[in-house]
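Chapter summary example.
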Amino acid sequence: MRVLGIETSCDETGVAIYEARRGLLAHRLYSQAAQHAEFGGVVPELASRDHLKRLAVLVNLALEDANLKKTDLSGIACTAGPGLIGALLAGLVFSGGLARALGVPLIGVHHMEAHLLAPLLEGDSPEFPYLALLVSGGHSLLVDVRGYGDYAVLGESLDDAAGEAFDKGAKLLGLGYPGGPEIARLAEKGEPGRFSLPVPMRGRKELNFSFSGLKTALLYMVRDLTAESALTGDDRASLALALETAIVESLVDRSTRALDATGYGSLVVAGGVGANRRLRLQLKDVCGNTGVSVYYPRVEFCTDNGAMIALTGCLRLAGGAPGPAAPDARPRWNINEVTPFSPA
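The structure predicted for these 344 residues follows.
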């Protein structure tokens, strides 16, 4: 069983091939970050056009990497949501046409489910049940992962996601897009303790996230500092450190409270923000002291990619009916709405 996975939910075009017996055979990724950087964020129309431009080329390259032909595929999995409607439609139209031409099933994959299962791409992966911290540009979730397709959201963002806080903070500091890596690089040069920002939701019993207030606090701090003169390089570095510290401490606080509430001994961290070095170090320290094991996909699979889509599609195909023959694009799709399954 070999499944071609296609990811086009936002501004990364991801293609991969996963085989049930041998695992991941090939993966290719094209990022549009440079194209959108001049606008300070993703332009949906540009994103969807670029997906259509890249997909056929990336599919052929992945097949060459795996030494396969299109007729060797058993199914095609494609992100059906959540995401940008135009970007989702670009992937679904391409995938649907290819699936019909080959006479193979088309599996519509929930983007967040794929992130939750991405650690299974690695040799060392957790057993069910486990807690998942899913943090990306558009989502901040704490999820009780009880089995394949059996998820319960314990906490979610009430406003901005963690990745949005990084992006908006980077824009306030005059940095590039995407903001997370820019903030992390600059924070390494910052002076610890020079600036302090509030840690969102720290100490709250509920497990939700909120980052809009943090963005506002940074805005006021920058406004006060620039009232008489422009920010210096040292100012920006120390502000970046303060922002990164506040976001990371909030994520760690929420995660440890969720671990206490569930009693689980495994934590999965997925999504683009999961690649943040400071977050990984703090979770390692906190969880190491309590005996909790922390699992990550490799860094290249933290951000959006085709490998996690191919894996999830293969598991769902092995679990029986893949779903509708022509999945709808669902820009808003609650993770609680996916169906449980048992892969053979």
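To summarize the output: The chain has a mean pLDDT of 94.
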